[in-house]
Amino acid sequence: MHCPFCRHADSRVIDSRTSDDGLSIRRRRQCPECGGRFTTIETASLNVIKRSGVIEPFSREKVMSGVRKACQGRPVTEADLAVLAQTVEESIRQTGASQLDANEIGLAILKPLRALDEVAYLRFASVYQAFDSLEDFESAIEQLRLDHGRAAVGADAQAESAEA
Length: 164
Fold this sequence. Notes:
Belongs to the NrdR family. Keywords: ATP-binding, DNA-binding, Metal-binding, Nucleotide-binding, Repressor, Transcription, Transcription regulation, Zinc, Zinc-finger. This protein is α+β, with helices and mostly antiparallel strands. The protein folds into 2 domains: 12-43, no CATH class; 47-131. 51% of the residues lie in helices and 18% in strands. The chain has helices at residues 60-70, 78-94, 102-116, 118-128, 134-163; strands spanning 12-18, 24-30, 37-43, 47-49, 55-57, 99-101.
């Protein structure tokens, strides 16, 4: 690590701490040449392999931008989009992979988006799951209905056991 003051090629770490979000490390460094102190923040890189083969760094903003299009006209706030993007990044980082296909990121968005807004979920899924026909939409809607039925049955069972 080059010193930002004198450009000396080395520095000594005098303190390391994990950041609040746990995704980066803050290091306090000192230059042995000039004695200047400075801070660095280190994060594990996460790269996306685009369909064209180009590799670029993962961006929460790009996740938010893509989901924002699916959420147009829906009651979804910017704060909701930021939380969704953070959730997606955390789930992707938990895989341990340093490079992912763009399609895998799109698929990782589906579960939290479904919990946020089902209409936006259907819009987004139609692109990332390559819906080709009305039957694809119908089966996705039917799956949503089945899941709602299971959730309602589970809630009824919990209410009955609480009353007993």
